[in-house]
Design goal:
The chain has about 200 residues and is an alpha/beta fold. It has four helices and ten strands, in the order βαβαββββαβββαβ. Strand 1 (about 10), helix 1 and strand 2 form a beta-alpha-beta unit.
Length: about 200
């Protein structure tokens, strides 16, 4: 389904054996800890895929990962509110609590007007292990308490609401096509109903 579709992936997606098959056009990292944990594993991809994938890092990735023609560091300092949404990456942009709205912000900056979320379960708080589809068997025990997790997810929900309203006011459509996702901020669409556009703006 995704072959030829301009696709964003996030964080440790390169640990999946599907990375080259998905052939992402963009790869986003937001959390400084995640950037540092993935530094050694992502750098070879950044070099090998320099003509295929653009990498967006939160500003704290400067000095952690090497610079390159396909590497961009986003100056994110503004906490998003209903009146302070900044998706222009050529200026100081929003600082998000997690990587999904960061990736959506990058997509909006690049001119995408249809953004469909896949694989956004939004259910990390439901497990005491830091599990992803590509490393479930090696998942580490969570360091955050349930209280911290729930607080973080509540903040993330509110940030998604701000982002949804910002996008809607500009004719940008964000939909959630993730089966069973707990993220109910965006309109749902069945994955089988997706009409995937092959061209990028």
């Amino acid at each position: 389904m995704l072959r030829g579709v301009p696709t964003f992936v996030v964080n440790g997606f390169h640990h999946s054996d599907k990375y080259d098959e998905v052939d992402p056009r963009f790869h986003c990292f937001c959390d400084e800890r995640v950037i540092r944990e993935n530094r050694d594993s992502i750098v070879p991809y950044m070099a090998r895929r320099k003509d295929k994938t653009s990498y967006f890092f939160y500003q704290r990735g400067i000095g952690v990962v090497p610079e390159g023609e396909n590497v961009y560091f986003v100056h994110s300092k503004i906490w998003p509110t209903s009146s302070k949404l900044r998706c222009d990456l050529s200026q100081t942009a929003n600082a998000w609590i997690n990587v999904i709205p960061f990736a959506v912000m990058c997509a909006i900056h690049l001119g995408f007007t249809q953004i469909d979320l896949l694989g956004c379960d939004f259910s990390l708080f439901a497990s005491r292990k830091d599990a992803h589809f590509y490393d479930a068997s090696n998942a580490a025990q969570r360091r955050e308490s349930l209280y911290q997790d729930l607080q973080g997810h509540a903040i993330a929900c509110r940030q998604h609401e701000y982002l949804r309203d910002y996008a809607a006011a500009r004719g940008i459509q964000i939909r959630n096509a993730t089966p069973g996702s707990l993220l109910d901020v965006y309109p749902r669409i069945d994955i089988d109903e997706l009409v995937l556009r092959k061209e990028a703006p």
